[in-house]
Amino acid sequence: MQLNITFRQFGASDSLKEYAREKVERVNRLLDRAGEAHVVLSLERHLHHADITIHSGAWILRGREKSDDMYASIDLAMDKIERQLRRYRDKLKSHHGKEKVHHRHDLVKVRHDVFEVHEPEEAAEAASPAAQAAPAAAPAPVAESGVARLVRTTHLAIQSLSVDDAVMQMNLMNNDFYVFQNQQSQALSIVYRRKEGGFGLIEPHLPEAPVAATGT
């Protein structure tokens, strides 16, 4: 297995590299075809983030976790991957040999942007006794509701899958949604995880053209 490890917002560590390598290579015994793996370790707001992606044939397995300790984050991310891998191990084996359908060079690509919004802080003086006793002043300008900041951008290749396979791929990536081309309808579709349980499917629906009236 080819393994790439990237460190962000903190210095590279040989011990973390070796630990991540040992944990990722454990899945080799569960995979018939392990292609490459990407591990991104980052420090954000004093939390240690581990983002691990493993390619096996046409399928992508992904685990993302964060904690106060990078070693624990790696463990938690790999636990997610191994849990889904054990769940779909037999189905993954049955799909080997069909990669040429998934790896066409003319596949559509979409961009997935993730934003985070920081709400403005309320002025502490407004609630202070001194502020309440002071004479009324002109109203202060209303602060903006929030400022969006781009956190990350991911480019996704749209695969042609059945709805069942799209749900499996979503679970293998531990995502709440997945964009794909429905093999049955050929439409660009989205399968997603419902809060109430189960899954939902979103597809474009074009209204039928009105039938022209004929004279009598």
List keywords for this structure.
alpha+beta; 216 residues; 4-stranded mixed beta sheet; single chain
Task: Briefly say what this structure is.
This protein is of the alpha+beta class. The chain is built from five helices and ten strands.
Would you spell out the secondary-structure blueprint of this structure?
Blueprint: E1 2-8, H1 14-25, E2 36-44, E3 47-56, E4 59-67, H2 70-95, H3 99-102, E5 109-118, H4 129-133, E6 147-157, E7 160-161, H5 163-172, E8 177-182, E9 188-193, E10 199-202
Parallel strand pairs: 1-2, 7-8
Antiparallel strand pairs: 2-3, 3-4, 5-6, 8-9, 9-10
Could you characterize what this model shows?
The protein is globular and about 80 Å long. The chain starts with a strand and ends in a 14-residue tail after the last strand. It has five helices and ten strands. The protein has helices at 14-25, 70-95, 99-102, 129-133, 163-172; strands spanning 2-8, 36-44, 47-56, 59-67, 109-118, 147-157, 160-161, 177-182, 188-193, 199-202. Helix 1 packs parallel to helix 2 (70-95). The relative contact order is 0.11. With 216 residues, it is α+β, with helices and mostly antiparallel strands. The protein has a four-stranded mixed β-sheet with strand order 1-2-3-4. Helices cover 26% and strands 34% of the residues.
